[in-house]
């Protein structure tokens, strides 16, 4: 069997002597070339796990390996396997330019000057930062800073990429750039990517698989499609009709909230017949239809229901 890119075995982490377990017996195997979403509510233990993988924190018990190398016992080899962008950290130096940052991190990762230069040139060009390569990163927008941070993580062309909230705080265009880039790294370059996010679209578009952690434990580990389809069986609709003074008569299970202009009808619809029946009921009352949207659950709602009742494949 090929060596997994990431292998976490019974990992636990307690901050301080008597603190709670931030990570509580996490085991996870990620095969080479896949993109895994490492998801969970705030405080679930995602960042702590990633910091242990990145050698920035020591585990209380259990082990982690990157391409077979133990992150503590074979530290130098393990550290050469990955690049990381950590949440809430300054991953690059703001007083340096993007060019200086990339050369610095390239040299730190053991690249020769010529290799670092060639790689930095390629990364900055791909990310559309070449023209501004000599400007200080501190003056860049959040999206550009994030692009530089990702480029710095990729400078030594690592096989494994750890991304903690890679699109947090980015605008639509920067999010699209980062997502496209992650997709290219995975599909065209065969990188293994572990990412955390609270954005459902990022999971849907990028992740082959999703592991959900809650209170330091993995509660679900499934292919993305399988997991998301579990939450799409009961389709939730939001229908806006013109607001009227008289109450709206609705089939069982639907609620209507009247606003100034629209009345918003919400509820779960089991199949097309029920949806038609609802629309007919509204039409029968002479209520002009303004809009109809299928509302997808947020990741937070998915997490909440998983914590209450884990889904298994
Ligand atoms: N340096 C620290 N000292 C003490 N407790 C900590 C420390 N860092 C994190 N924790 C605690 O460990 C638990 C897990 O935190 P962690 O940051 O790993 O969660 P997370 O899943 O990444 O959350 P988020 O989605 O909010 O980033 C939380 O209860 C947090 O308060």
Describe the model:
The structure is a single chain. With 313 residues, the protein is of the alpha/beta class. The chain folds into two domains: 6-230, P-loop containing nucleotide triphosphate hydrolases (Rossmann fold, 3-Layer(aba) Sandwich), CATH 3.40.50.300; 235-295, Alpha-Beta Plaits, CATH 3.30.70. It is built from ten helices and 14 strands. Strands 6-7-8-3-9-10 form a six-stranded mixed beta sheet, with helices on both faces. Strands 2-1-4-5 form a four-stranded antiparallel beta sheet. The protein has a four-stranded antiparallel beta sheet with strand order 12-13-11-14, with helices on one face. It binds adenosine-5'-triphosphate.
How far is the first residue's CA from the last residue's CA? 23 Å
Give me the count of strands.
14
CATH topology of the largest domain, what is it called?
Answer: Rossmann fold
Question: From the coordinates shown, what is the CATH architecture of the largest domain?
Answer: 3-Layer(aba) Sandwich
- Strand coverage percent: 25-35%
Name of the CATH first level of the largest domain: Alpha Beta
- Mean of pLDDT: 89
Q: How would you name the CATH homologous superfamily of the largest domain?
A: P-loop containing nucleotide triphosphate hydrolases
Helical residues, percent = 25-40%
Ranges where pLDDT stays below 50 over 5 or more residues in a row are none
* Biggest sheet character: 6 strands, mixed
Output the radius of gyration: 24 Å
Q: Which geometry do the CA atoms define?
A: globular
In N-to-C order, the SSE pattern is EEEHEEHEHHHEHEHEEHEEEHEH
The strand order across the widest sheet is: 6-7-8-3-9-10
Number of domains: 2
List each distinct ligand once: adenosine-5'-triphosphate
Q: What structural category arises from helix and sheet content?
A: alpha/beta
GO molecular function, one term: ATP binding
Protein name: ABC transporter ATP-binding protein
Subcellular location: Cell membrane
Family: Belongs to the ABC transporter superfamily.
């Amino acid at each position: 069997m090929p060596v997994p890119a990431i292998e976490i075995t019974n990992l636990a982490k307690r901050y301080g002597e008597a603190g709670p377990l931030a990570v509580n017996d996490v085991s996870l195997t990620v095969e080479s070339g896949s993109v895994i979403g490492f998801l969970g509510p705030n405080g679930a233990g995602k960042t702590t796990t990633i910091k242990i993988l990145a050698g920035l924190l020591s585990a209380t018990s259990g082990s982690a390996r990157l391409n077979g190398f133990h992150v503590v016992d074979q530290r130098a080899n393990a550290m050469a396997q990955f690049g990381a962008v950590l949440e809430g950290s300054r991953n690059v130096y703001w007083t340096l330019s993007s060019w200086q940052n990339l050369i610095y991190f390239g040299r730190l990762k053991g690249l020769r000057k010529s290799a670092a230069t060639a790689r930095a040139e390629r990364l900055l060009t791909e990310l559309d930062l070449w023209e501004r390569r000599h400007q200080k990163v501190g003056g860049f927008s959040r999206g550009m800073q994030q692009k530089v941070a990702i480029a710095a993580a990729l400078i030594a062309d690592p096989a494994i990429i750890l991304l903690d909230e890679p699109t947090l705080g980015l605008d639509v265009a920067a999010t699209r750039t980062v997502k496209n880039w992650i997709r290219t790294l995975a599909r065209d370059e065969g990188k293994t990517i572990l990412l955390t996010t609270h954005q459902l679209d990022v999971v849907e578009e990028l992740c082959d698989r999703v592991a959900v952690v809650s209170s330091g434990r993995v509660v679900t580990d499934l292919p993305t499609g399988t997991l998301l389809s579990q939450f799409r069986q009961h389709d939730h609709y939001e229908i806006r009709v013109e607001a009227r003074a008289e109450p709206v008569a609705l089939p069982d299970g639907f609620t209507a909230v009247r606003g100034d202009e629209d009345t918003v009808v919400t509820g779960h619809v089991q199949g097309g017949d029920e949806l038609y029946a609802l629309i007919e009921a509204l039409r029968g009352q002479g209520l002009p239809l303004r809009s109809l949207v299928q509302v997808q659950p947020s990741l937070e709602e998915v997490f909440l229901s998983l914590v209450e009742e884990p889904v298994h494949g």
